[in-house]
Amino acid sequence: MKEELIIAGFGGQGVLSMGKILAYSGIMEDKEVTWMPSYGPEMRGGTANVTVIISDKRISSPILQWCDTAIVLNQQSMDKFEPMVKKGGLLLYDPNGISRHPVRKDIKVCSIAAADLSNRMEMSKAFNMVVLGAYLKMKPILQKDNVIKGLKKSLPERYHDLIPMNEKAIELGMKEVKEVI
Amino acid sequence: MAEKLLKKGNEAIALAAIRYGADGYFGYPITPQSEVMETLMEEMPWETTGMVVLQAESETSSINMLYGGACCGKKVMTSSSSPGISLMCEGMSYMAGAELPCLVVDVIRGGPGLGTIQPAQGDYFQAVKGGGHGDYKIIVLAPASVQEMYDFVGLGFDLAFKYRNPVMILSDGAIGQMMEKVELREPVRRLTNQEIAEKYGHWATLGKPASRNGNIISSLSLAASEMEAINLRLQAKYQKMRENEVRFEKNMCEDAEYMLVAFGSSARICEGTLEKARSKGIRMGLLRPITLFPFPEKAIQEMLSQLKGIMSVELNAGQMVEDVRLAVNGAVPVEFYGRMGGSLFSPEEVFEAFAKKFNL
Amino acid sequence: MDIKDIIKPENLVYSKSKVLTDTVMHYCPGCSHGVVHKILAEVIEEMGIQDKTIGVSPVGCAVFAYKYINIDWQQAAHGRAPALATATKRLYPDKYVVAYQGDGDLASIGTAEIMHACNRGENIVVIFINNAIYGMTGGQMAPTTLLGMKTATTPYGRRADLNGYPLKITELIAQLEGTCYVTRQSVQNPGSVRKAKKAIRKAFENSALKKGTSFVEIVSACNSNWKMTPVQANKWMEENMFPFYPLGDIKDR
After folding, report:
1. A181, A1, A48, A5: which is closest to A103 by C-alpha?
2. Is CATH 3.40.50.920 the right assignment for the domain spanning B249-357?
3. With an 8 Å Cβ cutoff, are B68 and C74 in contact?
4. Band of residue B3 on the pLDDT scale cut at 50, 70, 90
5. CB < 8 Å to B279, chain A
6. How far is the alpha carbon of B53 from chain C, nearest alpha carbon, in Å?
7. Is the complex ipTM higher than 0.85?
8. How far is CA C90 from CA B16, B167, B358, C85, in A?
9. Which chains pack against C, by 3+ Cβ pairs within 8 A?
10. Which chain A residues are within 8 Å of B177, Cβ to Cβ?
11. Is B249-357 in the same CATH topology as B4-183?
12. Alpha carbon distance C54, C124 (integer Å)
């Protein structure tokens, strides 16, 4: 198993932490992981993206030309990363704020209205966990239990009371994800 | 089983410093390595191991705090990024001249000048060819993973004390900011002052006991004949490093007809290139220098009889390639591929460059 | 009566401090460094802390201080002595650490290091020799060179419009919360030498009490580079330096 994944959106959407939770979950299953962020001024409101690789074997390049999955949370990221998905790969996006929807026909395209759903359920802080749930539904590379463990590991203890809400958000994402193509 | 954590390269440096028994860290914030000091401050090692952590007023001051701490036989370290390392080069020259051990971590960003905070390898020359003034060398370790960032802190301190010489971990923004699995090693405790006095009392400035005259740590020697003798002694030490401390990793080199040479993050990317080449039936190998000084020239020379060509792959305008060419001495064609200014190449991009250079 | 009858312990009125080595000093006759070295060595001897004192020597005339005072020494890069002293004291809080610096070292190239070490209140002793000129390099303008004073790089006299003003760094240091004792002394006559020695002793005692940084400036003569005889230089210092750099404690708490 080897999953090469790019998560991209605005800074503040929880893109980097979603990647971190995935990577930690991979460690829970004793897999090799790399988490490679874009860093710098992007962190403060510009576009942010992170490359996560989860593999049974030693990981070579942490830098990708192509990815198995792109999770896209704003228009700039759609423009940049839709072409990078491997043929037959997965593009998962939140249609909120997207003016140009995906055009490729050689990949699987799924949508999750995570912004809407999390707002409606009054858990907008768990927006990224809704997206994560949707991803795990489409690509069940990791067990949910291990994802919760990964979440615990990557959250400071003072936030552990938020774990049940995050778990609910993951379940919501799993339920609401829709296949577009 | 040892605990496995997901950590950034920079965080791994900090955790390793505490666990390898460092006595002091002195640093100044600069992107992309600020997490080193941030992590140390969060861990508060002065409460546990007694390690001193101090935010200095500048990189100049940081390296000179290392000078003071190293004079006392203590395990001291700093970390910085390219512009800060430029400021530290003065101090590193002094420490090499005064034969003092210390560990300096350079998380390179793109230059010249203020440059960019994105990763690059443009400071190979600075690290390997001196940086500061005078004929001196420092041992340069190039980690290619977060685990190596952690492990090289221990190795770096060991080598620094073995040779009483500065050691540098030459990393870059990619390895510093990247998170990977890190296995924490068995902790090494700090030496007590008594142990330091026993081990290093013959040279360190610990306060002069009645039994000896004052120890003097200096890099100054005004008489040409004395200074030449010091230089010759230093050169003999650097020669010992060349003989004993070369470290490298060979990947699929047994049957290789072509070989990439790359270090640090470039080497990681080139592993992807290697997979790509092999899948196309091209017999490519990868040689990754782990020590940039001393440089693994013999390892390269031993490959020459089976090779049709070598390509040095670096995130700069072509720096290590000069050392590769010196080692190869014209025996086979040596090409170069690089990018600069914080742009990274992909494994595919490196493969395309390779195929073009060698008409494959 | 021959010489053997005179050299007897009971006739001893003065002896060199045991903390001083027998090495002949390279300082010019008339230079203040030799006297300051002497009283520093005496303080170390009298306090019985030779085994606990670590010195940091500067770049400048006093670079060779390590040859003359028999303690452990670190020889710092130009201006950086307070950084070395900081780390040394932090790593060995029970030792006495003294940084010995001149005006070019402390008040020009090393301004950042001295300001921040003092501001952090490092429990170190700083001895600052201010002779208003660069001695080692041959008499160039120092940050503390007086207006009108001729040096190798101000051959027609220091001019404010060309060279800026003389820097009263000791007064600046006294403003910093981290300093506990800031004083300006001199060593041109026996009375002033006694006072300066007392100040240095107090600085060392403060260090043991962890009160913060103690800073002792010694206004000094550099007769060679001032191009005067030692007697003329001391007179010139009293008439010209003291009005601008007045002696006495600036801060003591």
Report:
1. A181
2. yes
3. yes
4. confident
5. none
6. 10
7. yes
8. 21, 23, 58, 8
9. B
10. 36-37, 39
11. yes
12. 10
Delimit the domains of chain B by residue range: 4-183, 249-357
pLDDT digits (tens, 9 = 90+) for B206-228: 999 999 999 999 999 999 999 99
Task: Give me the architecture of the B4-183 domain, per CATH.
Answer: 3-Layer(aba) Sandwich (3.40)
Give the one of C69, C91, C115 whose C-beta lies nearest to B72's C-beta: C91
pLDDT tens-digit map of C155-175: 999 999 999 999 999 999 999
Given a cut of 80, whether residue B8 has pLDDT beyond it is: yes
Q: How confident is the model at residue A44 (pLDDT cuts 50, 70, 90)?
A: low
| Residue B24, pLDDT score | 98
Beta-carbon separation of A60 and B32 below 8 A: no
pLDDT for A40 equals 62
Domains of chain A as residue ranges with CATH: 2-179 (3.40.920.10)
- Per cent of chain C over pLDDT 90 is 94
Query: What domain count does chain C have?
Result: 1
CATH at residue C18: 3.40.50.970
Minimum-distance CB partner of B349 among A36, A37, A65: A65
CB contact A43 to B (< 8 Å): no
Average per-residue pLDDT for chain C: 97
Question: In terms of residue numbers, what domain contains C84?
Answer: 3-252
| Higher local confidence (pLDDT), C1 or B61 | B61
Contact state of B273 with A61 under an 8 Å Cβ cutoff = yes
pLDDT digits (tens, 9 = 90+) for B118-159: 999 999 999 999 899 999 999 999 999 999 999 999 999 999
B117:A63 CB<8 A = no
Query: B21 and chain C: CB distance < 8 Å anywhere?
Result: no
